[in-house]
Amino acid sequence: RYMPDAHIAGVQVQKMVTGGKEVIIGMNRDVQFGPLLMFGLGGTYVEFLKDVSFAVAPINKDNAKHMVASIKTYPLLAGVRGEEPSDIDSIVDTLTKVSQMVVDFPQILEFEINPLMVLPDGQGCVAMDIRLTLGDE
Q1: What pLDDT does residue 75 have?
Q2: Is 110 exposed, middle or buried (0-12, 13-18, 19+ CB in 10 A)?
């Protein structure tokens, strides 16, 4: 529809990711507020626990840190009972980049990374599945 003449050929190969914690980062473009960002534990947890935080984009790193720390299940990411903490900085970085992307591209109506696999501290995160809905500006 947007690029009917586009020809895409090829494959993408990524390393296998094991371990880590699943989180979700999403965005829905609200008519009155604009891009509304969402963060929470991902995978099936988001549907079961409904433990998410919201912010209107654009956000900075402090806003993103607050989004992450404000969910009830934050201790699971921070490391509880001897578990290694997750790479919170990589979540914050991803949230701020998604925020800027949805501000820069108003044709993105919905966006979701679920799950975003967050590895142990210092090892980053990997988007396992991304869904994107485009519309007119």
Answers
A1: 96
A2: middle
